[in-house]
Amino acid sequence: MFKADHKKLSLSFNEFHALSAKDIPQYGEYCLLELKTGTYTAGGWCPSEDEHTAKGVFIRGTADTVDSEEVERWHSLERYDLTECLEDEEIGRINLGPKEEGCRNVLFDGFNVFSGKKNPKEEQFCLLIMKDGSLAAGRWNKWRGEARGAFIYSSAMACHSWEKVWAWTPLGSDEIFEKEMELENEKKLEKKLNKNPSADPELFKYGMDIDVYYGKALEKLREKFCWATLTMMKKKTPVWQIAPLHGKYVFGQVDNSYYDDSKIVTPWTEGTTSEEFIDFLYSYTHDTVERSNPEEKFKYGADINVYLEKAFNNVKKDYRWLDKKMLSDWQYDIRTVDGDLEFVSRYRGERKYSIVDTESADSFIEQVERDYQRAALMSNKTVASYAPSFGHISLYGWNLESYVFYKLSSGDYKVSVTAGDRVTGGSRDFFITPYCFEAKTYEEFLNRYLEIVPDYSFGLGKKELLPDNELKKFLGY
Predict the structure, then answer these.
(1) Which of 10, 41, 324, 402 gives a 20 to 30 Å CA spacing to 259?
(2) Which residues in 171-262 belong to E strands, given as ranges?
C-alpha cells in the first residue's frame, strides 16, 4: 500500500471554477464544491433540461442533492491519480491544480484510515483518497449489524466500499449530518436517563415481571375461554414488555430500529394503573385466544397425516397428475411448543420447523393445499405457450409486463402474469381448473376463467380475450 503518512498528509486544491454557463462540469462529473455558505461538499453534476446553462443539481446520493444556486465554485475530482505521490514516504503536501498568485486555495488535512474500529460519523460527508490513487467523496453509512460500511456517492445507493478507500477526511456539515448528530445526542441522553429508571408504584403494583400482568389477564380470560394459555395470549404480537423510556419504566412494545441496533419503545398510554393495564391485556389478546380453541384447531386429532391426506385428496381432484413424490420438499408436523400444540412446517433446506399461523384445522388444510398446488405446477413441464398482445396497462401503479398461457405436459393449462414498476415487480402462476374447460363455448370458458384471473386485478378481460382467435385455438375451442 502507499508509503505516505496519512497523518502528515494534506491536499491543496488550488484551482476552482466559478459555476457559470461558460464554465460548467461535464454531465456526471464528480466535483469538490465550495458552497456560498463557505462550507465544502461534493457531488456529480446533473444539468437541468437545458444542459448549456449553469442550472441543475449536484447529486450526492438518493434524494440527496445540492442545487446549483447554492454553489460558489467547483473543482473536478476525476482528473487526478495520486499514486506516484503517495508512494513517496516523505510526501506531506500535494498541490492539486496550478498554484498561482491570487488563485483560490483550499487545504484539506486530518486524514484517517480504517484501522481498528475507527469510522467516520454516521451520515458524515467525506473526501476520499482511494486505494487506486483516485479522489472521490461520499456520505458514510455503516452496514447494519457490522463494524464497517460504505460511502454513498450517487443515486440508487451507489457507494464506495470502505475496503476500496485508503484515507478519508470529513467535508463540511450539512442538514442530513446535523439531523443524524441530533439523533445521536438524543440517544446518548436517553441512555444516560435510563441508567437508573424510576417505577411508578401505581403502574407497577405487581412488580417488574411482565408475565405477572399477563397471568392476571389470563385468569380473566379463562373465565370465558377454558383453553386459554399464556402462549396463546402472546401469539398476539407485538407482545408487551416492561422497558425504560425517558428515565422511567413503562409498559411498552419494543422494536429494533431498522437502521441501527437501538431499541424503539412505544409506550402504553391508555391508563395509569396496573389494573387498567391488565384490563387492556385482556382486550388486546381476547380475539387471538378465542380463535385458538384446540378442539377447533385440532378437530381431526393430533395425527398430522390425517390433515395431509385431506389436503392431498382435495388438490388431487383438479391437479390430476399430483403424486406424493412431488411433495417431498414440504414437511409438516404437530408439535408441543411452549406447552401448546401447534402445526409446524419447514421447506427444503430449512433446519428448523416454523409455527404455522392458523386458527382452525380447515384453514391449516387450506394452507397445505396451496403448497401442494405450487408443487404440482412446478412438477408439470410446459410444452407450448401463447402470449396475447396488449398495449400499456397500469394496475394500481404497476405496469403489466407479461401475460402468458401455457399448455402443460399433462394436457392441462396455466397462465403466468408479471407486473412491476420502476424498482420492483412480481409474478404469479394460476392453474386453469378443469371446471373452466367443461364450458361448451369459448365465451362461457372466459366467464369461468376470469373468476380465477379477474381483469380488474390482472389487466386482461373479456374485451381483450374474446376476439383473440389464436388464444381460442390454443385453448382447444
Answers:
(1) 41
(2) 241-245, 248-256
Question: Which position has the grid cell 375461554?
Answer: 225
Phi, then psi, of 436 in degrees rounded to 5:
-65, -40
CA distances for 394 relative to 5, 309, 398, 416, 458, angstroms: 58, 42, 6, 17, 10
Tracing cell 442550472 back to the chain, one arrives at 55
CA distances from 198 to 195, 204, 249, 356, 374 (A): 10, 11, 6, 40, 54
Cβ atoms within 10 Å of 77's Cβ, excluding its own: 21
Q: Where are the alpha helices (DSSP H) in 298-338?
A: 304-316
Query: Taking a C-beta distance cutoff of 8 angstroms, is the pair 64, 138 a contact?
Result: no
Q: Which of 208, 297, 211, 271 is nearest to 244 (CA)?
A: 208
List all residues 6 or more positions away from 473 whose beta carbon is below 8 Å from its beta carbon. Answer: none
The dihedrals phi and psi of 268, each to the nearest 5 degrees, come to -75, 130
pTM of the full structure: 0.60
Angle, CA of 97, 98 and 103, to the nearest 5°: 100
User: What does the DSSP assignment read for 43-103?
Assistant: EEEEE-SSTTSS-EEEEEETTEEEEGGGEEEEEESTT---HHHHT-TT--EEEES---TT-
Residue pair 401/425 in contact (Cβ under 8 Å)? The answer is yes
363 in Cβ contact with 296 (< 8 Å): no
Asked if 152 and 136 touch (Cβ cutoff 8 Å), the reply is no
Q: What is the pLDDT of residue 422?
A: 59
- Identify the weakest region by mean pLDDT among 91-100, 323-332, 360-369, 463-472: 91-100
**How many other C-beta atoms are found inside a 10 Å radius of the C-beta of residue 37?**
12
Long-range CB contact pairs, 468-475, < 8 A, 24+: 468/388, 470/386, 470/388, 471/386, 471/388, 471/405, 472/442, 474/384, 474/386, 474/405, 474/407, 475/405, 475/413, 475/437, 475/442, 475/445
What is the pLDDT, as a whole number, of residue 430?
Answer: 95
129-176 pLDDT tens trace: 999 999 999 999 988 777 899 999 998 778 999 999 999 999 999 999
Residue appearing with cell numbers 401448546: 340
Q: Helix 304-316 crosses helix 361-378 at what angle (to 10 degrees)?
A: 50
Q: Of 81-95, 256-270, 455-469, which range is least confident?
A: 256-270
Distance from first CA to last CA of the chain, Å, rounded? 72
pLDDT at residue number 261: 65
Distance CA 244, CA 262 (A): 13
Q: For residue 341, what is its C-alpha cell?
A: 400444540
Identify the pLDDT of residue 98.
78
Distance CA 351, CA 347 (A): 9
Residue 388: cis peptide before it, omega within 30 degrees of 0 = no
